[in-house]
Amino acid sequence: MRAGPRVLVFPAWRDNPYLNLLGLNPQTAGYAFLRTTSFHGLLERLDELRDGDVAHIHWTTPILQNADTEEEASRRLAEFSAALEHVRGRGVSIVWTLHNRLPHETRYRELEVELYRVLERAADTIHVMAPATAEVVADVVRLSPEKVRVIPHPSYTGIYDTGFSRAAARDSFQLGADDYGVLFLGQIRPYKGVDALAAAAGIAQRPDKRLALMLAGAVKDVPLEAFLDSLPSGVRTVSHFGFVPDGDLDRWFTAADVAVLPYRAILNSGSLHLAATFRVPVVLPDEAHLREQFGALPWVAFFDTERPVESIAEMLGDPGLFAGVTGEDFDRFNAEITPWKVSRRYRELLDELTRDSRPLTR
């Protein structure tokens, strides 16, 4: 098998499970992946690409938002725009995966909006995971319909260990039969709304169970002491305010009864797919695009974004919220988006873009 075209992935964080899953099928088919994580590394790698290669841009934060000044960010935008024009002139295809409406921490908003528009114009394909993405981002950038390609977020089936029994997992947190584990797992940042979840847990009244708030993830952009002071005193809290290794995800999810994602801003969420892998029901914000995508799933419920604290509290206090949900409900969802199926669809996209330069084997 000879090497196929090269695919430059940016930013290619090696510990990012989504990127690793997406590249499974193309790499076995002979595509050579180039990786970089810095803006200057991106410019250098783009300069290496030739006719038939692909540049795939994912999260845009490292391009402008890491600049020290607005002047530097503006200069970076001009350099990046010119680099895209040059590689297109050499026959390089450009893919842009639109992960977020805008980066969650945006220092230079106007420049970031212009960056989105530069990418929209330059991209041969705009990869989205949510079918309603174009409508959600319409006030930021207009996506050309002919460029948009929907490839869903993969499940994590077969990726993470699921060997923990529920009894052992709950015992490790000292959760009893009368405890109702409410999980948030991931970095704790202001836009994720964990403060609303904590406040909801503090006022929720459940007739049959005691709420146990399970928080796992590093606290960012807020002093840890200030965040700890915001937690309700009358609710038991099980916490780990640091990085949760892959090998420990199983224990947290298997012990939980529900995962709550109280985000204030969300386009896509790998956390939902992670919860589904461990068969844990999910509470999401009632955004139109999320309801369109996940509203038919019996293990997903939606809280009122106009009154998040009260709405989440009402849901946590409802013993019948996910009554009747079975393991098969999760399995059907996961079966449609296995890592290999989604990765194969990505490889098919690369095949279309590279045409005569594609690998010889599949």
Secondary-structure element pattern, one letter each = EHHEHEHHEHEHEHEHEHEHEHEHEHHH
Return Rg in Å.
22 Å
The chain-level structural class is alpha/beta
> How many E strands?
12
What count of domains describes the coordinates?
2
The CATH architecture of the largest domain comes to 3-Layer(aba) Sandwich
Residue-averaged pLDDT, rounded? 95
Task: Indicate the percent of residues in helices.
Answer: 40-55%
Write a structural description.
With 362 residues, the chain is an alpha/beta fold. It has 2 domains: 6-154 and 338-356, Rossmann fold (3-Layer(aba) Sandwich); 166-336, Glycogen Phosphorylase B (Rossmann fold, 3-Layer(aba) Sandwich), CATH 3.40.50.2000. Helix content is 41%, strand content 15%. The chain contains 16 helices and 12 strands. It has helices at 17-22, 24-28, 39-48, 61-64, 70-89, 109-122, 133-136, 166-172, 194-203, 224-230, 246-255, 270-277, 288-294, 308-316, 327-336, 339-354; strands at residues 6-10, 32-35, 54-57, 93-97, 125-128, 148-150, 179-185, 210-216, 236-240, 258-260, 282-285, 300-303. Helix 9 crosses helix 14 (308-316). Mean pLDDT is 95; it is low at 358-362.
